[in-house]
C-alpha cells in the first residue's frame, strides 16, 4: 500500500503560514466596526463630485439606514462631511484636505514645486509664490524671488485673504459649490482684506474658471498685476495656487512681457499638475 502522507513542510513555509494566520487573527482581533463604517462613508464620498443622499449612501454600502444616519450625523458634527443647502445631500468637506497640509505630502508638493518656480523666476524675471487653503484663508507655503534688482515678494508663511486676492479666487473657482460654501463659511478676514459681496465673488470666480487662470490688478499693492493658475489634483479640484505678482519695467531694460510671463507660469503649473497626477496614480 502506498503511503499518501504529505511530506513535512520546510521550516520557512511553516513560518510563512503562521505569519498569514497571525495577520488574519490580528485583523479580526482589532476590528473597529464603527470606525470602518465612518471610513467607508468617507471613501465613498471622495469619489462623488456632487455628493450623495443618505439613501444612496445606504444602498451603496449595503448598510442599515439607521446606522448610516448616526454615522453621518457624527461626521457632520466633526466637520468631515457637510450637508447641501437643501439638506438632502452629503459631500466631503475640506477638513481632510486641511489636515493633509500638516502632513508630509505637503512637503512633497513644495519639493516638486520649488525647482519649477525657480525656473519660472529665472525665465520671467519675476517672483512667484505658492498658496494653499488653510482654516479660513490662504497660507504661503513656497516663495521664490526673481533674479533682477527689482521685485516684490510675499513672505513665506504669510496668511493672505481668501476673497480679495487672485490666489483666493482661483482656489475658490476650482472647488465644488459645496466645498466653496464650506471655505467661505470658515473664512476669517486678514488685516486689510477688502470686503466683497457674495454675488460679485461668484461672478469673479466664474470668470476665472472660464478663462482658466486669473490676471487682475492687485487689490493690495498699486502697480502690480497678479497672475494666478490653479494647481489641480487628480479630481480636477485646485489643491494650490501659483501666483506671480507681475511688475512692469518702464526703463530701457527689455524684460519678458506680461503675456510672456503668463504663458510661462501656465506651462510651469501644467507640469506641476501632471506631476501631482502621476504621484496619485
Low-confidence stretches: 12-25
Strand order of the largest sheet: 5-4-3-8-7-6
- The CATH superfamily of the largest domain turns out to be GAF domain
Strand residue percentage: 15-25%
Biggest sheet, in brief? 6 strands, antiparallel
Mean pLDDT: 84
Count up the domains: 2
What's the gyration radius in Å?
Answer: 25 Å
Distance linking N and C termini:
58 Å
Using the 3D structure, state the CATH architecture of the largest domain.
2-Layer Sandwich
Structural class: alpha+beta
Strand elements, count: 8
Layout of helices and strands, plus pairs?
Elements: H1 11-29, H2 33-46, H3 54-61, H4 65-77, E1 81-83, E2 90-92, H5 95-100, H6 104-124, E3 128-134, E4 137-144, E5 159-160, H7 166-173, H8 177-186, H9 198-211, E6 214-217, E7 224-232, E8 238-247, H10 258-280
Antiparallel strand pairs: 1-2, 3-4, 3-8, 4-5, 6-7, 7-8
Helix pairs in contact: 2-4, 3-4, 6-10, 7-9
